[in-house]
Amino acid sequence: MAVFSRLICRRAASLRSFCTKSTDSDLHRASSALSSALPVDNSNGKGRNVQWVFLGCPGVGKGTYAARLSTLLGVPHIATGDLVRQELSSRGPLSPQLAEIVNQGQLISDEIIIDLLSKRLENALVKGETGFILDGFPRTVRQAEILEGVTDIDLVINLKLREEALIAKCLGRRICSECQGNYNVACIDIKAEDGNPRMYMPPLLPPPQCESKLITRADDTELVVKERLRVYNEMSRPVEDFYRSRGKLMEFDLPGGIPESWQKLLRALNLDDHEDTRTAAA
Ligand SMILES: Nc1ncnc2c1ncn2[C@@H]1O[C@H](COP(=O)(O)OP(=O)(O)O)[C@@H](O)[C@H]1O
Q1: Is 62 in the active site?
Q2: Residue 165 contacts by C-beta under 8 Å, 6 or more apart in sequence?
Q3: Does 137 contact ligand 1 (Cβ within 6 A)?
Q4: pTM for this model (two decimals)
Q5: Active site residue 217
């Protein structure tokens, strides 16, 4: 009940600011809420589940690899973009303003995103989940500072892909409106050039039962994707430096499609996916 009333107070407060600017007191309140939504960690990172962050441009595949790692490691995959889309589809009082910001490719305020994240982490606490893989957060240096102030992030994986592939991947993205499965109809084949090897990424097609139910995200148009890339370079690139200077950043160049990239990522992380190896061998 106490958690619930705290949440209601926070939601009411979050109505105050929609744009990327928050006041210091709003942020202070949001960061306290984030802190109380996280488990107390006296173990200095030892003996608890992973607390990882995925960084990378729109379309790079953060969601795909974060979801796979989350299944492998048994920790929740928390994508702030998904939290924003859930808020939009709830058609609550925040929805119209949030839709406008998201559909223009801009970032929503640090305060609102931290509110949504705190709510999700509180759910995780209630469900007894430990650890997390964050995808899409932090996206500003301010968010990174707040997160660093309330918990210890073990590793930040910075996924990288050539820009022409990023745009094609965003434009090819499709979601099944029924099962929420993520697919991609783009077939990316970039010739070897300037010392870069050929890059081939086959489409990830939906099963027949999803084919007629595919939808495209409203912010996956060419104009908005280009704006999101610009916003990433301006607001989120500095987050890479933030973690690089703290020795937490692992750069990861995606070599191509999911099978080869996944195996390379597992090797880089010193992990083994027995399930995947069995499936590939079958
Ligand atoms: N950490 C964040 N800070 C501010 N806005 C966010 C954040 N995470 C998500 N959003 C909003 O949600 C939108 C969709 O996020 P996401 O699905 O992560 O997109 P992308 O495919 O660009 O990585 C973003 O363009 C932004 O408007």
Answers
A1: yes
A2: 59, 188, 190, 199, 201
A3: yes
A4: 0.85
A5: yes
Give the chain's domains with CATH numbers. 48-269 (3.40.50.300)
Q: What is the pLDDT of residues 64-88, one digit of tens each?
A: 999 999 999 999 999 999 999 999 9
Is 139 touching ligand 1 by the criterion CB < 6 Å?
A: yes
**Could you say which of 217, 226, 244, 264 is catalytic?**
217
Spot the catalytic one: 29, 169, 174, 228.
Answer: 228
Catalytic position from the list 10, 29, 62, 85: 62
User: ipTM, 2 decimals?
Assistant: 0.98
